[in-house]
Structure to design on (284 residues):
């Protein structure tokens, strides 16, 4: 049986430099997109511990749910704010395990990956030129010498948005906690503080491994009806577990539901739930 730990796994997903850039067929993106707008396959790079007997690690499910849109690439010109999301893995027996993922961007240091991205842009631009260059005898269609040569400034700005000699390439990466209960706020704080420690110019008080070890092996699940306070990298983290006589744990901000769906849609959903209609939510 489960020993009642706060978290079962710490997972890192991202770019496997040995595999390189593999198109992500599940994302539905097509090759008409510029290379920076395409998605590529992400991999589970590491997990700690390797396996726990009460919660076998599902690498395919965790990898897909940690980064559902695959790898994303950006340059220094793009916004690269970290994004947090949660997910649930439901097994055949109905049992659930919860995941919390913080996705951020880090600089690509592999010259092979940068060169591969540059090659994809050369190929994309060449294909665009073939499809959109006017016939050579149609001189009236050329508004300038640059347009006739297929190197207009607007086209260069649109399609040459990555230049290996000029731009810095960034790729998405995520850190994730797999837990037996849905302590969303606490997990978000843990991940945000770990990310802050990695990106901060000053090292954290203790090695990062000690904080990960602590959350995996030393922080217990709070008993029903009790709260738990433990130390993060930069400050205390608190979570509370409802008692058996209270409503089940729901650690998500209801405000976000109204922001995403609007008041009228929320009321309609609530009405459908009371009338026992089947409800399907569809999103990207």
């Amino acid at each position: 049986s489960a020993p009642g730990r706060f978290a079962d796994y710490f997972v890192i997903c991202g770019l496997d430099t040995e595999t390189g850039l593999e198109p992500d067929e599940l994302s539905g993106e097509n090759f008409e997109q510029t290379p920076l707008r395409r998605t590529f396959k992400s991999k589970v790079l590491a997990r700690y511990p390797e396996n726990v007997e009460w919660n076998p690690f599902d690498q395919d499910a965790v990898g897909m749910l940690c980064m559902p849109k695959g790898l994303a690439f950006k340059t220094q010109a793009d916004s690269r704010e970290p994004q947090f999301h949660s997910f649930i893995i439901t097994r055949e027996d109905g049992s659930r395990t919860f995941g919390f993922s913080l996705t951020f961007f880090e600089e690509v240091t592999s010259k092979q990956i940068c060169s591969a991205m540059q090659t994809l842009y050369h190929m994309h631009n060449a294909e665009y030129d073939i499809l959109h260059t006017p016939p050579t005898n149609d001189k009236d269609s050329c508004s300038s010498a640059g347009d006739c040569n297929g190197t207009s400034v607007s086209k260069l700005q649109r399609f040459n948005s990555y230049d290996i000699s000029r731009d810095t390439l960034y790729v998405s990466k995520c850190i994730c906690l797999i837990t037996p209960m849905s302590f969303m706020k606490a997990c978000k704080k843990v991940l945000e503080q770990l990310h802050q420690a990695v990106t901060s110019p000053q090292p954290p008080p203790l090695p990062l491994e000690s904080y990960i070890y602590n959350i995996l092996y030393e922080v217990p699940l709070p008993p029903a009806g009790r709260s738990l306070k433990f130390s993060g990298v930069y400050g205390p983290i608190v979570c509370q577990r409802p008692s058996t006589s209270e409503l089940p744990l729901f650690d998500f901000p209801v405000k976000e539901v109204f922001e995403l769906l609007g008041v009228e849609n929320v009321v309609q959903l609530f009405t459908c739930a009371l009338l026992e209609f089947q409800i399907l939510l569809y999103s990207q």
About this structure: The first strand starts at residue 9 and ends at 14. Residues 141-160 have pLDDT under 50 and may be disordered. The radius of gyration is 24 Å. The beta strands are 9-14, 43-48, 73-75, 83-90, 96-107, 169-179, 227-231, 236-240.
